[in-house]
Structure prediction request, 142 residues.
Amino acid sequence: MRTMLFLIIFITLIATEIFAENVVPGPQSSKEGILDGMVFVGHVGPKGGAANDVDEVYFQNGQFHSKSCNKYGFGSAPYSVSQDDNGIIFKAVTHSTKHGQIVWEGKVMGEEMEATSIWTKKRWYWFDAHEEFWLNGSLKKD
Prediction:
């Protein structure tokens, strides 16, 4: 019985070694995103309304961050991207322990960015929050 167990372990180790050499490595994950290092400054307003605030949006270390949301406890969040012929499309979801979440979607076209955000918060005592905003910004130059 002991010999059989030893053989099984030995054969498994050899097979693992043989197959491991033939594996083609996939793309390496990175904490950096294609938009990293970019900061956009622009006007913000409610969907269908006029601008009522200014925001700075940062892309750093694979994270998205909205400066104007700091006061509500929203932090940074990973962002994902895809590309089309007109620019880079991004998406991120930021969270606040007190104020819910914001789903961000936007497009970077050269030095310009257009984005939308949807803030939601579940409430047990009142209606659930659901507000939509737009943001149009330009690349911040040092």
Q: What stands out?
A: Strands lie at 39-46, 53-60, 63-66, 77-84, 87-96, 100-109, 112-121, 129-139.
